[in-house]
Amino acid sequence: MLILEVLFYSFVIVVVIQVLYYGVLFGSFAFSKSENTTNKSLPISVIICAKNEAENIKKILPYLLKQDYPTFEIVLINDSSNDNTLEVFETFATKHYNIKIVDVKNIEAFWGNKKYALSLGIKAAKYNNLLFTDADCQPISNQWIKEMSSHFSNKNTIVLGYGAYNKIKNSLLNSLIRFETLLTATQYFSYAKIGLPYMGVGRNLAYHRDEFFKTNGFIKHMKIRSGDDDLFINEAANAKNTSICYSKNSFTTSFPKTTYKDWYKQKRRHISTANHYKFKHRFLLATFYITQVLFWLLGITLLITTFLWPFVLGLIILRFLIQYLSLGFSAKKLNELDTILLLPILEIILIVLQFSIFITNQISKPNYWK
Q1: How far apart are alpha carbons 282 and 266 in whole angstroms?
Q2: Can you tell me the distance from the alpha carbon of 294 to that of 11, in angstroms, rounded to the nearest whole number?
Q3: DSSP string covering 165-190
Q4: Phi and psi at residue 94, in whole multiples of 5°?
Q5: Which of 78, 96, 180, 274 is deepest in the core (most CB within 10 A)?
Q6: Could you give the CA distance from residue 333 to residue 72 in angstroms, rounded to a whole number?
Q7: Does 35-263 carry CATH code 3.10.20.740?
Q8: Is 255 helix (H, G, I), strand (E, B) or coil?
Q9: Which residues of 222-243 are buried (b: 16+ CB within 10 A; e: fewer)?
Q10: Do residues 149 and 45 touch, judged by C-beta distance below 8 A?
Q11: What string of pLDDT tens digits covers the 370 residues of the chain?
Q12: What is the distance between the alpha carbons of residues 148 and 182, in angstroms, rounded to a whole number?
């Protein structure tokens, strides 16, 4: 009986923490209104680093070149590709004056290091305002540059955007990938809203080049081959210099992985960088995950034993209500409402997979850039 009482009161604490995360922390983004923006048409350098992405580049460059924006260049970085990526770059460059090519050759000190290639591209950019996306990402509108750049100001020198994944009907994996993307975006947007920005995604990210030089670029984590986006933001972003952009015309989209094996490998790379976040961010993220796990374990255990089951059931309903409201409003903002329909199932699968990835990463290090 004593054990069940301890489990019950532990469950109460867990539910309170989860309600605070979903209702208060995530609610800072979910229930917020759009931030005010400027209408200045700042010159922008769009930067794309590509390694063996010839086919993707052929698809996305036409969309980038059609952006409705007065002054921008596209900096294309060929990171020692083995295919005809460079030739594709050159073909487009002969037809469009605002394309700049940076051809990076491997050197022994930075062999296969994307951060080295990106550093060269950033230094070669003509303008101070930099906008990043990946070689397999496509802006969903011709207002992408305008929307993202509108959040720059004298104070805001870092802009966090949203990189979505294309929807595939009747695919549980696709729903899982987009749910995880929604949850991650809800977290980094929310933390930024309360003045604790901790990450951004390279699929849709903007910052001033001055911020890059202030932190000496990627030098502090150059040996960690992943994290050119989140580790940089974790170091450079703060409450005063960071803004978020989530208007639908500002989204980029890309094709998600289509097999669990490929997605698992991708998430291993992403999760491995979290070990290098600042302690306060690691603590807050770990607390959220641990209480997620305990919510399910303790809740199911107490229901099976029927110990004070009306109170347990009430706490479960309360947590789900706050969770659905918070993630529901976030999903509406980010155009991911359909993922909410399978929320409990997707949450359980994601918890199990994240635990599996954590254990796997302790045993062996994941591979990074192609």
Answers
A1: 20
A2: 8
A3: E---TT-HHHHHHHHHHHHHHHHHHH
A4: -70, -20
A5: 78
A6: 28
A7: no
A8: coil
A9: bebbbbbbbbbbbbbbeeebbb
A10: no
A11: 789 999 999 999 999 999 999 999 999 999 998 776 767 789 999 999 999 999 999 999 999 999 999 999 999 999 988 899 999 999 999 999 999 999 998 764 444 578 889 999 999 999 999 999 999 999 999 999 999 999 999 899 999 999 999 999 999 999 999 999 999 999 999 999 999 999 999 999 999 999 999 999 888 887 777 788 899 999 999 999 999 999 999 999 999 888 888 888 878 777 778 888 999 999 999 999 999 999 999 999 999 999 898 999 999 999 999 999 999 999 999 999 999 999 999 999 999 998 888 787 777 665 554 5
A12: 19
Give the pair of three-digit tokens for residue 148.
Answer: 């993202």
* Six-digit token string for 146: 């305008």
Instruction: Report whether 42 contacts 130 (CB < 8 A).
Output: no
CA–CA separation, 15 vs 356, rounded Å? 24
From the number of C-beta atoms within 10 Å of its C-beta (0-12, 13-18, 19+), residue 95 rates as exposed
3-state secondary structure labels for all residues of 267-314: HHHHHHHHHHCCHHHHHHHHHHHHHHHHHHHHHHHHHHHCCCHHHHHH
**Residue 76: closest CA among 135, 3, 126:** 135
- 125, HSE (Cβ side, Cα atoms, 13 Å): 30
Q: Give the pairing type, strands 158-160 and 72-79.
A: unpaired
DSSP 220: G
User: Would you list the domain boundaries of the chain?
Assistant: 2-29+280-357, 35-263
Q: Could you tell me the sign of the dihedral formed by the alpha carbons of 238, 239, 243, 246, in that order?
A: positive
pTM above 0.90, yes or no: yes
Interatomic CA distance for residues 370 and 69, integer angstroms = 32
